[in-house]
Amino acid sequence: MPRSLKIIALVYAAYVGLSILVVMPLLNYLVPKVVSEQLQRPLTTELIVFNPFNLGLEVRKAELGETDGTPFAGFRLFEVNLSLASLVRKGWVLDKFTVDELTVHVKRLPGNVFNFSDMMGNSDTPDAEPELEPQPDAPAELPGITIKDFNFHAQRILVTDTNRVKPYQTHWDNLAIRVRDLSTVREEGKPYRISASAEQGGTLTWEGDISIPQARSEGRLALSNVRLRTAWRFMEPWLNFELRHGRLDVEGTYDLSWDQEFSYLINDGALTIRGIDIVPQDQADLPDTGITLDNISLTGVSVDGANTRVDLDGFSIHDLAVSGFMDDARISLAELFATRFEESPESETPVAEEESGSPWQVNLKTFQISESSVNWRSPYTSPDTLVVAPISARWENIAWPLAGQSSGELALAILDTATFTLAGNIDLGSGSGNIDYKLSQLPVPWFNPNLPSVLNADIIDGEVNMQGGVQLAGFTPHHSHAGRCNPAT
Question: Which 3-state string (H, E, C) describes 71-132?
Answer without folding.
Answer: EEEEEEEEEEEECHHHHCCCCEEEEEEEEEEEEEEEEEECCCEECCHHHHCCCCCCCCCCCC
